[in-house]
Amino acid sequence: MSDDQPLQHVVLIGFMGTGKSTVSKRLAEHLGCAACDVDAEIVKREREEIASIFASRGEEAFRAAETAALDAVLGAQDKLVIATGGGAVLSSVNRELMLRKGYVVALTAHPERVIARVSQDPDRPLLQGGVRERVYKLLEDRKHAYDFAHLTIDTTDLTVDEIVNRIAEAAARNGQHSNS
């Protein structure tokens, strides 16, 4: 991280339950910057919980709020480690924003590990109903959605510190800029 290089954000993408929120906090500490969770930013901006936005206004309204929050966060002057929601990558506008303003890291995990991590979380509106079936269906629907990332890490059998170290090393090697 040389001083003559523009500071860019590190953007964590991936399916729910892959560790984005946890890793973002630890990575931010490691890099000496702040962490930002886009879902938390949406709640703050909309003054409404995500599950409530889905229930009262629908997924389309949530996705619009998500793009607005992502754009605002990516516009920050200070370097951030940004954890996105699992579906943020579904929008081409969001993917373009992430690539233009950050070093994008996709976190993946084995489906059964994802199920174990998210099955007890009531704040996941896309998992209402059968968790196992929904996870497998959404993973299939999104199997190529994270392919645009600069780096992909399978978090299934790694500790948070191992993930953080891999991201920090790769980001430093790649000068933290996108190739787009």
UniProtKB/TrEMBL annotation:
Q: Name one GO biological process term.
A: aromatic amino acid family biosynthetic process
Q: Where in the cell is it found?
A: Cytoplasm
What pathway annotation does it carry? Metabolic intermediate biosynthesis; chorismate biosynthesis; chorismate from D-erythrose 4-phosphate and phosphoenolpyruvate: step 5/7
Q: Which GO terms describe its molecular function?
A: ATP binding; magnesium ion binding; shikimate kinase activity
Q: Where does ATP bind?
A: 17-22, 124
Details of cofactor binding: Binds 1 Mg(2+) ion per subunit.
Amino acids binding Mg(2+): 21
- What Pfam families does this protein's entry cite? SKI
Which residues participate in substrate binding?
39, 63, 86, 142
Instruction: Name the catalysed reactions.
Output: shikimate + ATP = 3-phosphoshikimate + ADP + H(+)
Query: Superkingdom of the source?
Result: Bacteria
Q: Which GO terms describe its cellular component?
A: cytosol
Q: Which family does it belong to?
A: Belongs to the shikimate kinase family.
User: Subunit composition?
Assistant: Monomer.
Q: From the Swiss-Prot or TrEMBL record, give the protein name.
A: Shikimate kinase
- Which species? Paenibacillus sacheonensis
Source organism phylogeny: Bacteria, Bacillati, Bacillota, Bacilli, Bacillales
Question: In the UniProt record, what gene is named as encoding this protein?
Answer: aroK
